[in-house]
Specification:
Layout lengths: L38 E4 L6 E7 L5 E3 L4 E2 L10 E3 L2 E3 L7 E2 L3 H4 L11 H19 L24 E4 L2 E4 L32 E5 L18 E5 L5 H8 L21 E2 L22
Parallel strand pairs: 2-6, 8-11
Antiparallel strand pairs: 1-2, 2-3, 4-7, 5-6, 8-9, 9-12, 10-11
Bound molecules: zinc ion (2 copies).
One zinc ion binds next to loops.
Length: 285
């Protein structure tokens, strides 16, 4: 009797393995909504590929993609990853990672950069030139754009929410949603979407703890702060997690990028501050 042809085998008799299709989902108790820990992006100053990683500190770090032999990298420049978190040291293995800023051709090279890293930096510089020549990339001025008082629109505004001050990466009207849409692309709706309550530009002291133990030698002039503290807790949380009204924190949509908030340091960010109230583009003229 001839065996019945089985559909679970290929024409040559090898087994046809079927993997059930699964959809990636974020666990309910996950501290992060990111689908992957290394967030791919391009350096805004040189156009080369970078990977953003979370650190134990408040800010993420951009690492050069790929590992390097640890014996080519001085100990001061070594980073390693453990459970998706980036640490500024080697882990004793023969491989390590480096930050992108170490080899970014748009940044000033450290004087003691060893030859192998200088080689990588030169390679990235050539790639930047290729991107510029093919109009695939337009370099941002470095250092970041200085605030333009005449435009009355701080390029990197100071924003106060949940009793903390942050510096935004872009003007408040342009802060983008970090969520992934059902089409698996990044949402293009801004956090300050039409119909939402805006913040209030307010002049405030540069540091909320003027009489604290930390004595700062700062000018007494008040700075313009985009204050969101009059909004509800859930609205302030929506701003902090950088999501549009459709992708509020209650939705299951994963994140495609890390929020861009940088904790405000009155001394470090002093050149970015403005001392008069910007014009609110959403208020009637
Ligand atoms: Zn760069
Ligand atoms: Zn969104």
């Amino acid at each position: 009797m001839r065996p019945h042809p089985s559909t679970s085998r290929h024409w040559d008799g090898t087994l046809r393995t079927r993997h059930p299709r699964r959809t990636l989902a974020i666990a309910r108790d996950s501290p992060s909504r990111l689908l992957r820990c290394a967030q791919p992006a391009r350096c805004r100053h040189c156009g080369n590929r970078i990977h953003w990683h979370t650190t134990t500190g408040p800010s993420p770090v951009s690492l050069h993609p790929g590992e390097l032999p640890a014996d080519l990298v001085p100990a001061a420049y070594r980073w390693h990853l453990a459970s998706g978190i980036a640490y500024p040291a080697g882990d004793g293995s023969p491989w390590c990672r480096i930050t992108h800023t170490t080899v970014c051709p748009a940044a000033t090279a450290p004087g003691d950069l060893p030859t192998p890293l200088t080689g990588i930096r030169r390679k990235l510089a050539l790639h930047t030139r290729h991107l510029v020549d093919t109009t695939a990339f337009t370099a941002l001025p470095s250092p970041p754009i200085a605030p333009d008082d005449s435009a009355c629109r701080p390029q990197r505004p100071v924003v106060q929410l949940l009793y903390t001050r942050y510096v935004a990466a872009v003007p408040v009207e342009d802060v983008p949603c970090v969520a992934q849409t059902i089409r698996r692309t990044r949402c293009t709706t801004p956090v300050l979407a039409p119909g939402t309550n805006p913040g209030r530009w307010t002049l405030m002291p540069p540091t909320p703890h003027r009489h604290g133990t930390r004595q700062l030698t700062l000018p007494a002039t008040d700075i313009a702060v985009y204050d969101l503290t009059h909004l509800s807790y859930s609205e302030q949380l929506r701003w902090r997690t950088q999501r549009c009204p459709t992708h509020t924190t209650s939705t299951a949509a994963p994140d495609l990028a890390l929020p861009d908030w940088e904790p405000f340091d009155p001394l470090h960010h002093h050149p970015l501050t403005v001392t008069r109230l910007p014009t609110d583009p959403r208020s009637p003229r």
